[in-house]
Amino acid sequence: MNQLVEFIGNHLILVTLWIAVASFLIVLVMQGKFNGVKALSSQQTVNLMNRENAKVIDIRPVNEFKKGHIIDAINVPFSSFDEGKSKLEKFKDKPIVLACVAGLHSGQAGMTLKKSGFSQIYRLNGGMNAWINDKLPLHR
Predict the structure, then answer these.
(1) Fewer CB in 10 Å around end: N or C, the chain?
(2) Whole-number Å distance between alpha carbons of 139 and 128
C-alpha cells in the first residue's frame, strides 16, 4: 500500500490523466447503455432485416453513402438529420437500424427519433466499419 501512495505522489499528472480517461470511458459506456437505443451486431442487423423487415437508415454523408451502403438503406446524413427525419415518418412503427461510420453518431440520431415518437430504434454496433469487417455485401 505504501508503494501505491508513493507512486501516486511521484506521478500525480499521470494518475490524474488516468482517472480522467477512465471517467470519460465510464460516462461513454453509461450513455450507450441507458440512452434507449440498443446496439446490434452486423449479424443481428441482418436477422432483423430478414425477419422483421427492418429499415436501415444510413446517416453518413452522401459521398460516403454513394461509395457503398447496405442494400435498400435510406441516406439521411447526420449533419442534416433533424430536417431529414421527416422522410422516415412512414417507418415510425417499424424497426429502424441506424448506421454511421463507426457507431458513434447513430446513438445521438436514435435519441432524436425516440423523442419524435419512433418506437423500435437500433444502431449498428461499430457502424459501417463493422459491416465491412464482417465482409457483408454493399450496394454501390
Answers:
(1) N
(2) 12
Q: How many helices, marked H, and strands, marked E, lie in the chain?
A: 7, 5
Q: What is the mean pLDDT of the chain?
A: 90
- What number is the average pLDDT over the span 82-105? 91
**Which has the closest alpha carbon to 115: 90, 82, 80?**
82
Helix, strand and coil in the chain, % to nearest 5: 55, 15, 30
* Tens of pLDDT, residues 23-32: 877 766 655 5
| C-alpha grid cell, residue 14 | 499521470
Boundaries of domain holding 10:
2-32
Same structural domain for residues 66 and 40? yes
Mean pLDDT computed over 52-62: 97
Calpha distance 75→64 (Å, rounded): 10
Backbone phi, then psi, for 39, in 5-degree steps? -85, 135
Task: Please tell me whether residues 18 and 82 are part of one structural domain.
Answer: no
In a domain, 140, yes or no: no
